[in-house]
Amino acid sequence: MASWALPSPTTVVPTLSPSIDRPRSWNVAFVHSLGSNSSSPFVSSVSNSSVRSSWFRATRVRFAAADDGWCPSSTSGLPAVDEAREAVVEILQEFGASQEDSICIAANSPCYVEMLVGNVQELDELGLWGSWNNEIVEENVDMSRLSFRKKVYYMAKSKGDKGVLPYLESIGVKLSSALLISRYLSSERLPQLINKVNFVRGILFPSSINEALIGRNARRMMMYLSIPADEDVQSTLSFFEKMEARHGGLTGISTILLLFPPIIFRDMEKEIKPKLCAFSKGLEEKYIAKMLMKYPWILSTCIQENYQRILAFFNEKKVPESSVDLAVRSWPHILGCSAIKMKSMVEQFNEFGINKKMLVPIITSSPQLLLKKPKELQEVVSFMEEIGFDSKTIGKILCRCPEIFASSVDNTLRKKVSFLADFGISRDCLRRVVRKYPELLLLDTDNTLLPRMSFLMSVGLSKREVCSMICRFSPILGYSIEMVLKPKLDFLLRTMKKPLKEIVEYPRYFSYSLDKKIKPRFWVTQSRKLECSLKDMLSKNNDEFAQEYMGIGRLLVVPSVPPKDGS
User: Fold this and answer.
1) pLDDT at 203 over 60
2) What is the largest CA-CA distance in the chain?
3) How would you class 507 by CB atoms within 10 Å of its CB: exposed for 0-12, middle for 13-18, buried for 19 or more?
4) Whether this model's pTM surpasses 0.85
5) Helix (H, G, I), strand (E, B) or coil at 62
6) Based on the number of CB atoms within 10 Å of its own CB, is 91 exposed (0-12), middle (13-18) or buried (19 or more)?
């Protein structure tokens, strides 16, 4: 494997013109594939400057302007820039890129192109071509007398990046970052680099996957690494500091290059694919892609070795390997967590009565809990104790809804409790509400809780009655308005002709299936002209209901449609 250690500070890199080197944030994308025949728009319009200008402008795709409002588009229509792009296309083809790739790269690397334009214009204005002595220029060639396009051609060639710099910008890497990363790729030929990036792109970004999900993982990867890093990962950590990847703002394949640069130097068939297979074990390709997006470090040796230690740790705890793989699939960051750290968290779980059998659903549904620091878990436990729960109840809540213990106390849990208290839920009722339905602590206040409460009040219930319903049966806050609350309420009022006070007294009514239980039992009581409360009608099991309302010992079939007259 090629070495890619950080270069020494004395390494000479291409410089930006003072007029071009300004803070900016570019996100660019590849445009549609272009034909390679003689009728290509580029080939047919080389001699026409206006056509060249409009075609290149149409080809370039931009998604964000510079942070300070400045962007190269202010000069994108000038012939000088168009000629510069043509020069870049020419030199990219010399370095082995196809005509189609060269055109796309030139069209999607505006900062690089305008850097070259700025360099050439600066030398033109100052008349310094005589002192610009470069080995790539033929002897006795007067640079000042060459065409602008030729000057840009030689300027690009003098940078020494062999086409890598504009290519990196064209796939979304900021030019400032591309200047640094291109130094690591000095031994890579442009065609091979394009092929490798396309290979990784094909694995990571099928059409169903959103590239924008990747950028948020850089900080998380570093935050949760608790095992000794190998050379690749250690160099990547240093690389993060250089590239400022931890601050986000990166998307797509460019992020993968920054999150794990060694991928560029690996042999795809001999190194990358076998390591992917070590984690795949029958997984669908889309799951492997998602894991790579979230955690490209799975390709590093130290992470692969730690995976075996994690399996051994959970095997000791009698957690099936299939459950561990499910946890890794959903939260691959645990691959960077040491077994010692995991052990300390599991020991904390034991304090709340969590045995080995109960550990499995916790690990599979909320593997991120294993990455928490003991004090972070203790903060949630202390919050639960504030509400009034003992350790046994806290353990039950942990088993039922472990996601709560991975949540922020101040930003999530305390806000939900305050919202319920402000609505009118008393402190004594609050303990019952959370114990019966702890999942409500994870529901969105504005988009879920408040709309459901508002719906109940919109049908004629008072806030006090809604509070009473929540205290009696808190899972009511988890039911969809359109799928559950509204249709069941319509049947209650329009068909059953019952008053609203019935659901205030028995809100559990909303928990029963409308078609399988509510309607069949109502038709039975109606056909026998029997009056009964919702609780009496629905709370009994089938045998009890049959004995009391149908006069038989066992209920085999309950009609799901209204009985015919006289039946």
Assistant:
1) no
2) 114
3) buried
4) no
5) strand
6) buried
